[in-house]
Structures are given as C-alpha cells and as structure tokens.
Amino acid sequence: MMKLQKNIQLIVIALLVSVMTNAQNKPASPAAVATGKINGATITINYSSPSVKGRVIWGELVPFNKIWRAGANAATTIETDKELMIEGAKLPAGKYSFFVIPSEKECVLIFNKVAKMSGTSNYDEKQDQLRVTVKQKASSSTTESLVYTINDKSIVLSWEKWNIPFGVK
What we know:
DUF2911; about 170 residues; about 45% strand; mainly beta; DUF2911 domain-containing protein; signal; single chain; 10 strands
C-alpha cells in the first residue's frame, strides 16, 4: 500500500512538471495564418498574434503616428497570387510585409516590397509598394488575441476594441 501511494505521488509530480514545462514553452505571441480567397485570388497572411492581457493597446502599447509591424515578432506578411485592388489602389501579385500607422482617427496601411523583416528596424519607405488610409471601427467587445479575417470583399485586423477593415477586390 505504501509503495502504491509513493508511485501515485511520483506520477502526480511528473504530470505537474510536464504541464508546467509545456505552459512555459508556449510563445507569448504564437504564429498564426489567415488564408482566404477574394475574386479568385488566394491571400495568405502570416503574423504573430499577441494578446491584450489587460493592457491598453491603441495609443499606448501601439503608439499613435508610429509605424507598427501589425502583429508581434517578425513583420506580418501578406501574399497574393493575383493582382488585388486595395481600397481602389493596385497591389500586384506577390509577397509583402504589412505595416500600420495608427492614429486616433484613421490608419495608414503599408504594403512593403521587402517581405522578410524582423519588425520595423529595416523598414525603408522607398520600398513601399502601396499605402492606403482607412478608418478603424470601434468594437463593443474586446478581441483578446490579434486576428486577421479574410472576408468576401475585405480583410479585417481585429485587436482589443478596434477593427481595422480594408476593402479588397
């Protein structure tokens, strides 16, 4: 009986250590992918998805009027296999790093030709393929983890109390 109790204790300890180790290995901003089709074009967005964790995002964690990588870790990328019209402006087929410059009233969306960047440190405005300005929309509910949604005619970046939609044709 004593040996059985000891074995059970060892198993419980092993399980706890295993759970704690796995919990510590989870990244704070896990990699995520959004894929969808708009007008026959396949669109893939690769990003890292940070969480709100009780923080104020817009204007604090993500400062107003400064370029932001539109996710966490490496810069977010958007890839399309066909030309798209983003808010009425042409975006050729290809892979782009994607950035946002948020302000209190609107957001500048940037599609940069240098697809592989670790954040904004190597960002060069001369490499921008396209810039468009859109109005963000306040949300009544909180989106805890940043997410991109590809709809029939738009893409939406949602995080905290903002949705940043942009039209795509």
